[in-house]
Structure formats: C-alpha cells, structure tokens
Amino acid sequence: MDKLPKCAANCTPLSPLTFLTRAGSVYADRTSVIYGRTHFTWRQTYERCCRLASSLQSLNIVKNDVVSVLAPNVPALYEMHFGVPMAGAVLNTINTRLDANNIATILRHSEAKVFFVDYQYIPVASEALRLLCEPVANASQPANIPLVIVIDDVDSPTGIRLGELEYEELVHGNRNYAPIIDQLFDEWDPITLNYTSGTTSAPKGVVYSHRGAYLSTVSLILQWEMGSEPVYLWSLPMFHCNGWTFTWGVAARGGTNVCIRNTCAPDMYRAIEEHKVTHMCCAPIVFNILLEGIRTPDQAINTNQSEFVLKSPVQILTGGAPPPAALVEKIEKLGFHVTHAYGLTEATGPALVCEWQAKWNQLPIHEQSKLKARQGVSVLSLAEIDVKDLETMVSVPRDGKCVGEIVLRGSSIMKGYFKDEEATNKAFKNGWFLTGDVGVIHPDGYLEIKDRSKDVIISGGENISSVEVETVLYRHPNVLEAAVVAMPHPFYGETPCAFITLSMRKSSPASASDQKTEGEIISFCRKNLPHYMAPRKVVFLEELPKTSTGKIQKFQLRALAKTYTPSSSSSSSVPPAAQSSKIQITRRRYVPDDNQPQLEQVLAMSRL
Amino acid sequence: MDKLPKCAANCTPLSPLTFLTRAGSVYADRTSVIYGRTHFTWRQTYERCCRLASSLQSLNIVKNDVVSVLAPNVPALYEMHFGVPMAGAVLNTINTRLDANNIATILRHSEAKVFFVDYQYIPVASEALRLLCEPVANASQPANIPLVIVIDDVDSPTGIRLGELEYEELVHGNRNYAPIIDQLFDEWDPITLNYTSGTTSAPKGVVYSHRGAYLSTVSLILQWEMGSEPVYLWSLPMFHCNGWTFTWGVAARGGTNVCIRNTCAPDMYRAIEEHKVTHMCCAPIVFNILLEGIRTPDQAINTNQSEFVLKSPVQILTGGAPPPAALVEKIEKLGFHVTHAYGLTEATGPALVCEWQAKWNQLPIHEQSKLKARQGVSVLSLAEIDVKDLETMVSVPRDGKCVGEIVLRGSSIMKGYFKDEEATNKAFKNGWFLTGDVGVIHPDGYLEIKDRSKDVIISGGENISSVEVETVLYRHPNVLEAAVVAMPHPFYGETPCAFITLSMRKSSPASASDQKTEGEIISFCRKNLPHYMAPRKVVFLEELPKTSTGKIQKFQLRALAKTYTPSSSSSSSVPPAAQSSKIQITRRRYVPDDNQPQLEQVLAMSRL
Lengths: 608, 608
What we know:
The structure is a homodimer.
Chain A: H1 17-26, E1 31-35, E2 38-41, H2 42-58, E3 66-70, H3 75-86, E4 90-93, H4 100-110, E5 114-118, H5 122-133, E6 147-151, E7 165-166, H6 167-173, E8 190-195, E9 205-209, H7 210-224, E10 231-233, H8 241-244, H9 246-252, E11 256-258, H10 265-275, E12 279-282, H11 285-293, E13 314-318, H12 325-332, E14 336-344, E15 349-353, H13 365-372, E16 377-378, E17 382-389, E18 394-395, E19 404-410, E20 416-417, H14 421-427, E21 428-429, E22 432-441, E23 447-452, E24 457-459, E25 462-464, H15 466-475, E26 479-489, E27 493-502, H16 509-515, H17 518-528, E28 537-541, H18 554-561, H19 576-579, E29 587-588, H20 596-606
Parallel strand pairs in A: 1-11, 3-4, 3-5, 5-6, 6-7, 10-11, 10-12, 12-13, 13-14, 27-28, 28-29
Antiparallel strand pairs in A: 1-2, 8-9, 9-20, 14-15, 15-16, 17-18, 17-19, 19-22, 21-22, 22-23, 24-25, 26-27
Helix pairs in contact in A: 1-2, 1-9, 2-3, 2-6, 4-5, 7-9, 10-11, 11-12, 12-13
Family (chains A, B): Belongs to the ATP-dependent AMP-binding enzyme family.
Organism (chains A, B): Macleaya cordata (Five-seeded plume-poppy)
Protein name (chains A, B): AMP-dependent synthetase/ligase
C-alpha cells in the first residue's frame, strides 16, 4: 500500500486560498463584502484578488516576499488575505494602534517589499518610513525601503495619496493573473506573518503556514458551528491573528463580511440591524462598549424598549482575555450568545473553545456564566492539549485544582518566530508548544486558565491566581474592569494589588470617591475568597493600560504596584470594614503608551 | 521563513485517531455507543479501542497488515475503526451482503491477517474460508489463511464460536496498550481498504490514507452542519465507505452512535423515538423502507395520528443514487430533513453536498425538492471539482445543459487501488480523478449528475440521460422504483427501456396488471419529456437487481434489455394510448445475484 503514489489529484496542498476559489465558483452571486454602500459578490471578490495577485507579480513580488499593510477593517485588507498569498507572498498585517517607532521596527524586521497604507494612517506611516531610513546601531546593512501603496476609501474616495500607487488601481489594472497556487507551493510554505502585541516581551514575528491556516480555519468554523450563509461583522481587527482565521473562514462558508472602519457601538448596532449580522468576534472589552453603547443618545436603533434586546440573536466568539462571568451574563441579556475561546497568536488564534453542553441549560444563569468563562476543549486541528509540570513534563491530575503550564501540539501551531531561532527553540519543548499560561483541567476535560505564568502571585508560599481574584472583583456591581498584580509585601513576599475602573452606569466619577471605598472592595473580596487571596491594596484608575489589541498590560501595573506598600492596617486580623475610612482613594487617568518616559509620568502622577 | 522547522509540536500527522483520543478526554462521560441495553461512554470506548489495538499487537499484527471484518452495525465494528489503525493495521470492512465467493476473493486479494466474523455470518464466512483454502489457477502461492475471531453479540451473548478467539476477550484481555500512532506513522499511511461494490466492473480495493480520512471527516461534518452532541443512527452500513466517514465523525463531535443490527423500519423508528436521534445517513432506497414502514402493524410508535410525523426533525444525508424529487418530498412530510450528497468510494464517500440556500425556502415545495435532488457543491476537503470534456480536458460551460465527465481533485481522493496499478493509473488523468459520472454545472455553481458514463443512452445520435427519464418515472404516483437502460433499436441504434416496480400502497400486485399498462407509463413519459427520450419498452418487475450496497445493477438490466426489441407500434407516429392494449405486461420476480447462471435463469424467465 506504500507504493500508491501521491499525485495532484489526491494530495493537493492544504491552503485557505482554495476557499476563495471555491466561493468564487459555488457562491458566485452571493454577497461577499459589504462596506458602506459598497457591495461585492464572491465572483467579484475572487476576481479582485486574482487581479491584486497579478499586479503584485508585475511589481516583481516573488515567493516569500513580505507584503505589509496598515489598515482598519476595510475591504482591501480582507482581499489581501487572499491576493497577497496568491502571488506567493507573505501577508504582514500591522496593528493600527502601534506608533511610528513600532511600525518601523516591524518593517525593518520583516524586510517588507510592499507597504500598503490606509489613507487614514498616512501620518504615522510616513513617520515610520522616515525612521526606517535612519541608520540603526548594530545593523549590518541599511533597511530595505518598501514600495508604498496607499489605500483610499473604496466607498468614499478622498483622493489622498502617499506616493504614486493606489490600491484600486492595482485591482483594476491587471487582467492576466498567473496563479502561483497549486503547482508552485507546498502547504508548509508561509502565508502570513503576525507580530505579537507583546504583553510580556518585545514583539516577535509569528509565521503561519498554508497548512496551519487551512486547518485552523476549518476547525474553528466547525467548533463554533458557523452554519451556511453567515453574516459576519468585523468587530475584531483583521490584523489580530488574521481575524482569528475568519478572514478565510467566511469565504469557506460563503458568508458575508460586514466591514466597518471603527469598532464603536453605534456602527456595530447599525450593522447588526441593517445587515442581519449573525456572527462576530471580539475581546471581552468590546462587551463593555456594547453595554455602554445602548445608552448613548446617537444610537440609531434603540427600539423604544425600556430593556433593549437584539431583534435576532448574534453569536459572539470572545477571547484574548477570560471574560468575567458577570460580564457574560450582562451581554447575553441583550441577545448576544457568547462562546468563549482561548488562544494566542502562536496557535493561529483560538485553540480552545468552551463547547456548550445541552445539560448545562438546566443550570441557573449564574452557574452557566461560570461554565462559559472556562476555556474549554481543544479545536480539532490540535492533536492534543495538556497541563503539565514544566520541570518534569508530567501531566497534572484532572481535578480542577492542580495548576500547571498549558501546552499544545498540532497543525494549528505556528511554524516559528521569524528570524528568531532562540525564541523558537524556547517555545517548543519535547514536542509541545509552551503557552506560558497557567491552568487546570477539570474532571470533565474542560481546561480553565488560571493565569499567565508571569501573572501568578506567590504570597507566603501560596500561588494566587490573579484571574481568580479578578473574577470576584467583576462580580461587584460597580466594577467595570479589574486587573490584579503582585505588589511587594514585607512579610509574605508578594500580595495582590487590584487596579479597578468603575462602571459609568452605576456610579458617576463625582460620587465614586464617596461611595466606593477601597475598604468596601477589599471586604467584598474577603467575603468571596480565601482571605490570603483578597487584595491588600485597591487603586482606582479611569482607564487601565492596554496593548494595542486591548489586552491589559500587567507589566505596566506591576511597575505601578511596586511603588505602593500595603497598608499595615489591611492585615487579615483587622476587620475590613474598620479600614475603609482610613484609606485614600487613588483615582487617575492612565495614559496608555508603551514608552517608558510616559510610564514614568504615570508613576509620578500616581505618587501625587 | 523556509528555515522554520517542522516538529512534533507544530506538524502532527492528520488522522481520525486523534478524534478518539480527544473524545476520550473532553467528552469522557458522554454516551458514545448505544446498542440494545448496552451503553458505553467515550472514556470506555477509548479504553476498549486501546485494548483492542494492544491485543492485535500481541497477536503479531504489524504496520500495514490488513484486518478484515464481516459484521453488521454492531459496537465491535465501530470500535475497529479506531482500534485496528491504532495498531498500525489497515481495516477492511466487508459488505455483509456478499456471497462466500466474493468474500473469499476479497480475503485473498487483501491478504488479510485477521478475519473478524459476526456470529450471524459464520455460515457464509466458513464457506468463504473453505473456498480460500482451495487452490486457484494462476496463483503463484497458496492464499494466506487469516486468524479467525468471532464477534458474539455484546448485548445478548449467544456463545456461538468459530475457532478459539472472541472479540470481547480481546477487548478485555490486554491493558498494556503501546500506541503506534503519532511517533510511528505518516499521515499518508493507509487506514482502511474498501472494496467497491462494482456497479460496472469487478470489485477494486480502494485505499484511504489517515490524511484523507481526517480531512473528509472534518469537511463532511462541516458541510452537513452537524452540531455538538449529535445522536447518530447507524442506518447506513459502516462497511459503506466507513459509514461515509461518520464512524470517525461522531467521535469528532462527541456524539452518540445508535447501533442497530437490522435496517428495518420498526427498529429505525424505535431508535429515533427512544434515543432522540438527530442524524442518519442512507441511500434513497431506505426512504421507501421508511415510507412503507409507517404503515406496518408492528410499528411500535405510530402515535395514533392519521398523518404520522416525527416528534422532532431528523437530518438525513442521502446519496449513492440521485434521490427522485418526488421521493424527497414524501419523506420530508414525515419530518425528515433531507440533504443530498454525491460521492463514491474513491472519494471517501460524499464529495458534493447540495448545500441549502435560505432564499430557496420561498419556493414551492416541488421546486425545492428539485433543487434538493441536485448534487451540489464540493466539500472543503476537495481542492476543486469540474465537469470536463474528457477528450480535450476542457471545462464545459456552466449552463446546466452541456454535459461532460465529473472530475475531482483534493485530499479526500483515495490513495489508489490496492495491487492494481493499471486501474489506478486509469482513474487519474492530468491531476484529476475521473468519476465516470456524467453531469452538468448550473449557472449557480451547483453540479447535477446526468448519468454514469456507461449509463448514457445514445439514440439516433442524441445523448439520453437515463437519470432524467427515471426522474419523470418517479413522478408517476404508482411507481416505486425505476431504472432505465439502453435497449437495441434497429433504426436509432439504442432506445430507452424502463424497468419498474410498482408502489404497494397504491396498487396491489393483483390489480397492477389490469390498471397500469406499459402504454400508460410511456404516455406519461411522453407528456413530460421530449419524445425521443421516452422509453419504448416498460418491464414490470417485483424487485430490481441491486448490488450489496443497494445500488441498482444496470449491467444486469442491460443484459435483460438486450433480449427485447421495441414494439414497432411504439414508434412516435402512433399515439401511445392506442398502443396500450396491444402490449403484454412483463412482471417477474428478479432473483438478485451476480452469478451468470442465475442471470441466465432470469433471462429465461423473462422469455416465458
């Protein structure tokens, strides 16, 4: 049986590009992309991508060249997910929230040959290009300067340019597409290059293969049970793990992509109403935007109901951070149906999905939300997941209690970090990918994250999961966001310090300082947690520091927490109620920026 | 980027075996298999399969050894789909409807090392083993005699044995499973060996790879939108393309397998009612069993309704033959929801699925049934499908009219035919797999089969699709089954000849000869078809000859048709009504058997 040969008929390379070819054929007349008044069909999207690929080839883009793009969720960015790899090139989507310095670093590291820039991002892109031209210490040769192509707004052209070329001209310019797929590529070839947002370290360039992208896409559609003809709202940035594979997935299902330039509540609610959106992805932070958004006066579709509910349910896949159970409960009351996924850039986005079980429908809603906040079971593209003691590589017992590092293996794991052999080698151990996250496996096989390895607080020899403390904080009716980190403690070594933003709805900033005291929060935690796990310090901020992808930057908060010492009166022997009057509320606006000088400013402010 | 290495963490072999490992872990306590009063959980099924694999290894089964099995849809057959390849071996499921001679041929050709036999099939298996021991002309060496292991009924043990070993003893005997998967295999390794039923030629051994099986399984679950926790009724034999991949697919979804020994209406309706079946697969012929079955007196669940309807809808995936639109309409009225798929053994079962479009819901039910009878769009594991002129390999226009051969390529296509290089080479051409089926592509991208290449009737230079004539025949209220083949015609070369069985419901055998004349049927066809396409001969049989998998054996009917000549009075110039009284109705019981002597008997009978 080993003699039976592989041939082009029975062993074609796995690639998400086949999803577009197929959609262009079997879903030809269905709407593929909606953006403002602009609508495309799958036949058109297929042709536009072919023309883009052809134009890139005529610009001398060859196999494995990197094509970078800085754009919001506009049709051009969607099309590049197919058109760029169709030309054999590797798509590098750059986070639009980065500053010029970070963008220049990525352009330099990726050696991008082409740089597509949405017209709105010309100022920061120009500055990045200027920085790119500057000589860098230790660089053996000057940086390659990419060909710059502006993306004007396809729906409302502005005429703004940066250089000579514009995206639509490329799409309209070339009819003679010579496909590079099929004959010329191997499924292990790179398809995209995604730089991590760097919650814990410098950005690294994560490379996906065609095979990994195909398998991740298929598994995730399957796991989320995305049926036929979905209408998918682009609330999640496409630059985030290629939209958690749904850039390719919507093509696989012949669905409709609803593109929006800004992820604000009015635009999201309008799109949901107008295009009958069925699916969307977002980080839990967007739940807050949606919850606050229904109260804004300019929100077009408030249906005069005292209690706003969506006309038809919208499936939300959420991840990036564990969604607090209380927040899930709130958003579901509006008619959103939340599925919780866990993933990371290195695992092509979501790797675990909290698959719902029918029997859980019998449970009280509060219990359901708790189950829903668990990270769940592996998608089918992963061969195996486990929680291990990293020293011994022995699996922890499946008791929901013993913590260990979450490890993954399977075809949805990245090829590795681009030009970073050391980091690549460090990420893989004994045939496993190490996530750097700490978790438990429950007896029912569902995994639950307890923390990032670096976020575990070790207090008096006990491990405290910051996520567990945060979960309790989120249950407090006035807490909008919470982040818990270690602060130094003279006796215990470390102790939890909580950073909190308050809900606008329940408490206005003016009244907050009077009503919501640190003591009340600590007391609340002590009622709901073992005493040693309750924070000994609560700091109120107007905003929490976040990465460009919306993840809370705990390393910033850790730096801040180091400047505090726990009040001696907050020891466990003193009843929390007695402490409340003594403790001053710290309430500051956080200026989100990764730069050290600005961090210093915040630290200075916090010392005021 | 090419330097980034494949490793065990990021490039694991694709195999459906990972579905079982995963199910045993994340769906551990859910019911995996139900058979009578016997219930297993996924934890148990995983352990039983490991033990089976281990026992096979201790019986000296090594990589690529063939393990054959002759059994109905019992739990043992399900478990072998995992346990046998876990030991590195190749599973060969033998059609239980074959005779001893055919079984011996398969055992000889496959060189089976082990032969599992369900207790019910001991007589035919013993005879096959006897034949296997006989010397064969042209054989270079005596046939290998496999180790025989009987499968007793797990729910009601009979104690019947053939040889010393019994399946449950194997499963209970060995705790030390040394897994061969992962480290030891390549995804291109064989997983199963399925002999075609041979509608047109001698059986060939189709080999699937682990990769092909994995990808086919995932695509088919996705295309059928099989959600979580399905309850799957085994109405389709598992020996038929490994249950169209659902042997592996139910594990992938953590569903429940409802096994039944016989595919009879009472057992199917009882299982549907008792276990809340959500999904089942079957050939359209089973629709007739279900339709007739609701009228039988021993049917336990007739709910005293004048119009029987299922309590909750059951999804049916059907294929193997195009389901007549009228039949789809009838079965859907009972509460079954039909999805039509097209496939063949060489494409790991279903390769095209008639994906439903929401807008079709607006159409009249008759139009819907017609759309539903089309073969549809490719599953995602196929890279491409097309309809081509085989001479030029040029694609036909997508107009729903131009016919050509249906060709496929992608990872769900077989590795090839075992020990048959010539047939393998013939099946592949220019990077395509040739299905031997003739079809059209509609402007909306949906494919529709017109015929098997060999079944096209060429009459006066015009191609007549036998399926098209059959579709009209099925619309006649009294027609239960219809098959149309070519018969010789002195002027036109060939002309259609129809073989028909009548519906029991509408016409009893006694009255049929009086009421339903050949002329009436021909007249009906001429009203609904171009005249040249209407049959010039109609033969009434009590049963149509079928393969062991329920496909009508047109080659038998063609042989029969050759013995007829069209009545000269049935030329198009004579009004059909005028002919009816002249033509004698031929009504015979067909004895289904492939053997030439018996065919001769039938031919003799038909001349009576």
